[in-house]
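hiii, so i know i said id send this last week but things got crazy w the move. better late than never?? heres the sequnce for the chain we talked about at the cafe, plus the structure i predicted for it. fair warning i was half asleep when i ran it
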Amino acid sequence: MVVKNVENITRKPMLIAYRKEYLGDAVMVSSQSQETLIKIEFSIEMTPLGDKVVRIQFLQDIHYPLVPILRNLKDHIGRLERSGSLP
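okay and structure toks below
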């Protein structure tokens, strides 16, 4: 399963400057070219050393191994953040 896009991204209000939280819908494509929409909540946190840590929480059950999906989503969200595409 591969990440096609993350849609409907909304930023949750936070009082902490070094942490940003978002809600969105991850569009995943399976090997049979079937699209699946998965609701997610994710955060991007700046560590004291300047690294950015992405944490993802699934808001619904998924029936696929988590490690490959998490790796793909973290990479995709990192690219969105670096390109300035997040709200």
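btw Residues 66-83 form the longest helix (18 residues). thought thatd interest u
miss u guys!!
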